[in-house]
Amino acid sequence: MPRSGRHRAMLARWAVTLLxxxxxTYHSLAIPQVTECGLSCxxxxxxxxxxxxxxxxxxxxxxxxxxxxxxLESLMLSTVMKCAPQDGCSLLLRVQASLTLxxxxxGLEACSMSLDTKETHCHNMRVSRASxxxxxxxxxxxxxxxxxxxxxxxxxxxLRTVPHFCGVQLDQQYHVEDCRDEDVGRxxxxxxxxxxLSWDHNLGRxxxxxxxxxxxxxxxxxxxxxxxxxxxxxxxxxxxxxxVTCEDAGELVRVTANSVSRMVSLPYSQxxxxxxxxxxxxxxxxxxxxxxxxxxxxxxxxxAIHYHPGSQALSWEPACPVSGHVSLCWxxxxxxxxxxxxxxxxxxxxxVQYLLVDTQPQLCLKFSTSLGFWVRCPFKQPRFxxxxxxxxxxxxxxxxxxxxxxxxxxSFQVRLCHRRKMWPLACHRTLQATPLPPAxxxxxxxxxxxxxxxxxxxxxxxxxxxxxxxxxxTDMHFSAPQQLCNLQCGTxxxxxxxxARATAEAQTPWTSxxxxxxxxxxxxxxxxxxxxxSR
Length: 535
What we know:
Layout: H1 3-29, E1 39-41, E2 47-49, E3 72-84, E4 88-100, E5 107-114, E6 120-127, H2 129-134, E7 139-149, E8 154-162, E9 169-175, H3 182-187, E10 199-200, E11 205-206, E12 212-216, E13 221-225, E14 235-242, E15 246-248, E16 253-255, E17 263-267, E18 275-281, E19 289-291, E20 305-308, E21 313-316, E22 324-330, E23 339-340, E24 346-347, E25 352-354, E26 363-369, E27 372-376, E28 388-393, E29 399-405, E30 412-418, E31 426-432, E32 434-435, E33 453-458, H4 459-462, E34 467-473, E35 482-485, E36 487-488, E37 500-503, E38 512-513, E39 531-533
Parallel strand pairs: 20-39, 36-38
Antiparallel strand pairs: 1-7, 2-6, 3-4, 4-7, 5-6, 5-8, 8-9, 10-11, 12-13, 13-17, 14-15, 14-16, 14-18, 18-19, 20-21, 21-25, 22-23, 22-24, 22-26, 26-27, 28-29, 28-37, 29-33, 30-31, 30-34, 32-33, 34-35
């Protein structure tokens, strides 16, 4: 072969090698696709899915002395796609974890919580008994692939042992890719919505032969591309809110056959599940086509909460048709599930109103649909009036005094309860608080004003293990209790302690010690909502 020919052949081989490296690098950076979601463990271990639940359990037990708190070694998160020819691709979160197997461990639990909605999904994995006996001290790697996620979603991932040992967990925040990612933008239908859709099997994505639209969430516009074809008619386009009929939600646009540009920009103010793009040709009796790009964007629906101070009523009215129910709930402690109040469930088909509602930070609205549930706590804002419950020694020193402070005369009750493995608490005794005469001069400060009511409880009943004291208003139709648990009362000889408070601003500690300077009152989880106050 002449020298020039050998030189060209060498350059060709270098070019092929460079292309191969570039292609492999591109694919290594791409979001991988999976054919099915599931659970897998490292070789030599037998694992199985246990019971998946969507409740984040905050209870834990102390780890055995032989267990290191670093038994959980690593937590890695990544996005994968699961694709179907007719539906495009959906996004999943892959959770990869490794741990050193200890004889006390039965498995792992991974939970994903949306930072926007506080909706939680958990997957529970168990290691077979035979594997646990044979592989103690060995490294176990686990892959969870079945967390369904949405574009641009912010998540908080928690990895814990089964059983859950206190202080043995890993946490990590994760942000899912959006349409700016090449793989997501090319494969996820929300990034290239079309009406109607047709699938191009060669491209592996919807084709653009018919009317196509794209959603630009950063600019809050829907971009519509009207196809150009010889003899095609004019087209009408508009955004509308789809109830029984589609009601105008924007300007009606007519795209003429001789328009210079066939691209139309339709602005919108808020993503709503019933906000749809409607199009039809400008011909008699034309069939109208609707596509709703935000049908899974329900966030804005739950913020339409109103409080009416005059009637002390809390109301909510959906801006779109909703199938589900609404209820009032309360948070018993940090990280705990929001517990529904009795007789508060209402269908979510239209306006919902609750009369005589106590404005407490831990009192929330819970919305449940087939897509999941959402919690909003409108009274977290400081402008709403609050009452306080405190506990101190009674003058007899054989009792504890539960005192209530309120800016106005109010009726209260106290209930003694015992913790169980599962909620609700087992409550067995209810005591009516004794009202006190109102102060002649009020400073407007609940910490210095005298109490409005009190209850004395025998020390032996209040200070028992796993005992909780609940106090709540009885002059309201809907009130959530303030709660204090596990009072460590010390001995009769301790000095008179300061007041211990279960307040609306710093609610529901789990453990309290009357011999300490104050209660360890940590804030619970609250999810503020937009709320308007009308008189």
